[in-house]
What we know:
Layout: H1 18-21, H2 35-66, H3 70-84, H4 91-98, H5 102-114, E1 118-122, E2 130-134, H6 136-158, H7 162-176
Antiparallel strand pairs: 1-2
Amino acid sequence: MEPEPVPDTESQPSMLDPRVMDPDEEIVHRAGMDERDVDQVVRVLEALRGWHETERRMSEASRRYMKLGETDMRALRFIIAMQNHGRIVTPGAIAEHLGITTASTTKLIDRLAAGGHVHRFPHPSDRRSLAIEVSVETRRAARETVGRSHARRFDAAARLTPKEREIVARFLDDLASTEHEPD
């Protein structure tokens, strides 16, 4: 039995192209845009999709490498950031940052401690609380995975001119606001 041919993605229409998905302009209105304009918009959307997929793969790879879930990684990033600024991190601060219950935070810290990712210490000024610190090994692993990826993203943004950065930031803010329906 012969293998099925691999589709040629170059000749496939883009599923992000409104000319393909909404040819009658029932949802996406293209009035005043020529083909070149629409092509550019589709290119931007395809680039965003590519970035999103790359970000997802990088995040997944970091989590697999460190054997952690997304919430665990968010907690570690928070603890590392606070430690970098000389702040003592408490379970309450973690719960507040993540928007989770104290019971969930206790389970999260137990999981991270069992994996050797964090250490618990008595809080230096509040006997009722604990101080949570990231282990040296986890800090190093996070720096080598997440930290290096972030540095490359920072470099990409730094290569833009100040005007380009403002345009990109405004565009991304506009995209973020599309989550909610207009009134």
